[in-house]
Design the sequence.
């Protein structure tokens, strides 16, 4: 199950755009084992919109997704016993039927340092890094083609589950296709957490 939502629903300006899909996706899928950081996956289901504000969009829509995902890290990861430099790269190619059978390509890199735990803060574990991200798509949608860069911080405490990580990122971005209803550059503050349960 995937949930897509936001608090504002639409952006500002004379042609306000919806900020998310505002829907719940129910699907079944399969994923391969990881091979040298590379994994394939696919899923099929239906997206159910929970808003009545979008009459041009069907309330229930077929949703098919598949892709390849690559992730690799070098150096000293978060929570490592030794501190020092690290480098991470994530690359994804994602097919989504709901976007006109579009193919989205993401490349995200982070380079930075993992400092020693701060004992005075309960063995606080952190990473300080710089982001460089490139996002492209096969349809040249104006919202799906941009580059961004900026500082970031990941952190956790050792008493947390191993897969629970909090993050804060400040990014400066630029759209790489013409923008007719918004500025070509943007600033973005992103705060969130990641938690996964696998068996």
Sequence:
């Amino acid at each position: 199950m995937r949930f897509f939502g936001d608090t504002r629903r639409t952006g500002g300006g004379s042609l306000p755009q919806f900020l998310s899909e505002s829907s719940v996706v129910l699907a079944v899928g399969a994923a391969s084992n990881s091979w040298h950081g590379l994994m394939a996956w696919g899923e099929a289901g239906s997206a159910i919109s929970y808003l009545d504000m979008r009459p041009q969009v069907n309330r229930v829509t077929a949703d098919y997704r598949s892709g390849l995902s690559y992730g690799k890290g070098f150096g000293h990861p978060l929570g490592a016993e030794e501190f020092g430099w690290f480098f991470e790269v994530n690359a994804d190619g994602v097919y989504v039927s709901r976007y006109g059978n579009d193919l989205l390509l993401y490349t995200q890199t982070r380079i930075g340092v993992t400092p020693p735990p701060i004992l005075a803060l309960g063995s606080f574990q952190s990473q300080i890094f710089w982001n460089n991200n490139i996002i492209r798509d096969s349809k040249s949608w104006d919202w799906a083609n941009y580059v961004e860069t900026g500082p970031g911080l990941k952190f956790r405490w050792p008493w947390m589950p191993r897969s629970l990580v909090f993050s804060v990122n400040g990014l400066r971005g630029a759209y790489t296709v013409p923008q007719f209803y918004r500025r070509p550059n943007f600033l973005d503050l992103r705060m969130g957490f990641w938690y996964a349960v696998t068996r």
In short: The radius of gyration is 19 Å.
